[in-house]
Design goal:
This protein is an alpha/beta fold. Helix content is about 40%, strand content about 20%. A five-stranded parallel β-sheet has the order 7-6-1-8-9, with helices on both faces. A two-stranded antiparallel sheet has the order 2-5. The model has no long low-confidence stretch (mean pLDDT about 95). It is globular, with a radius of gyration of 15 Å.
């Protein structure tokens, strides 16, 4: 069954997360550090991140085959929402139909099922592209195609 709706995570999927912490670029930080970082850098919080080009190419391929693409990311604050919108607009303007955020990871598959239902799309025609195995498995358990970023980057 072909993908009609595809949902892409940002952190670790569309972007390679690198942030300056105490003068050193590192792959992540505590939740408290992240909240402060977003308050400080606002829409530029993803400035130091790099796009994961194999995933962006995969998204473009799906779009060429007729899929509608969405960003679906967990975000804690409005500042984080703004920074995610900013980096997606910078890296791949007009690729995604919409940037969706949820406040908890567990809400991702529910959001996909909600949109699929509203658009009359079978969950089996939806795909979640994600770097968190538990979320990929949750999607699969709900009848959604789950694709881990490693499957794309490693061309599995």
């Amino acid at each position: 069954m072909s993908t009609k709706l595809a949902f892409f995570d940002i952190d670790g999927t569309l972007s390679a997360p690198y942030y300056p912490v105490n003068g050193v670029l590192q792959a992540g930080m505590t939740d408290e550090q992240w909240l402060e970082f977003c308050r400080t850098y606002r829409e530029d919080s993803y400035h130091f991140c790099k796009p994961v080009m194999p995933v962006i190419r995969y998204a473009r391929e799906l779009r060429c085959r007729g899929a509608e693409l969405y960003v679906l990311s967990t975000s804690q604050t409005k500042e984080e929402d703004l920074s995610k919108e900013h980096i997606i607009a910078k890296w791949c303007p007009d690729l995604f139909r919409e940037i969706l955020t949820v406040r908890k990871d567990s809400e991702k598959t529910l959001k996909i099922l909600e949109i699929a239902d509203a658009l009359g799309v079978d969950p089996a025609e939806c795909e979640l592209v994600e770097d968190t195995y538990s979320l990929v498995l949750d999607a699969i358990g709900k009848g959604i195609k789950g694709t881990h970023v490693a499957q794309i980057v490693c061309d599995l």
